[in-house]
Amino acid sequence: MDGSGYPDGLRGPEIPLMARILQIADIYDALITDRPYRVALSSEDALKILNREAGYDWLDDSLVRKFSQICRYGEYFPVKGRSMLASYYA
Known about the structure:
Blueprint: H1 17-32, H2 43-55, H3 61-73, H4 84-89
Helix pairs in contact: 1-2, 2-3
């Protein structure tokens, strides 16, 4: 959100909404998925990291709050114990 990581130097609302949403979903998926160098984090730990990064202005704070609500109370976004990408191939 601060323009430091986006290739065109876009900041805040200049970054397309879909890119901001996908960024949050991609980071969350990476955190809750086992990696060769670490085990998957819990959903709650992943959400804490997203909120911390939003506090640094690296992510859209309002979208992270909405995403967190969906994950915490979410019939809308149930976590099945595997990554979102893996569910497409199951």
